Amino acid sequence: MDLAPSNHWAEPVVTIPLTDDRGPVLIEIDYRVAPERQAEFVAVLRRFRPIRQRDGAIRWDIWEDIAQPGRVIEVFIVESWVEHQRQHARVTQTDALDQDMLNMFHVGDQPPVVRHLLRPL
Predict the structure, then answer these.
(1) pLDDT tens digit sequence for 68-109
(2) What CATH code would you report for 25-118?
(3) For residues 8 and 88, what is the distance between their CA atoms, to the nearest angstrom?
(4) Is the pTM of this model over 0.90?
């Protein structure tokens, strides 16, 4: 395992003022996969649960869109914005390789969509 920081996560787009302790933060990663490969994809994605928890997630799950076959959403929650920033710093080179394998399932012209949501004040 290569535990060196990978810094492969893109910085979140932030358009509202944030304090470091704002939270919790819900992170959604919206994947599109070929429906016939969805079961295989989900099996690989499930291996990310301990990685996300190691990096600070307090909850983690996978959701399937019943209106759009092949749309799978990974969601995880971290306690605060600063904790999510730390999570970015904890992602390793080995994690980046695993993410590349996961992204090989993704179809479409754009990478998976990542959303950051906060509970309203």
Answers:
(1) 999 999 999 999 998 888 877 777 777 777 788 888 999 988
(2) 3.30.70.100
(3) 8
(4) no
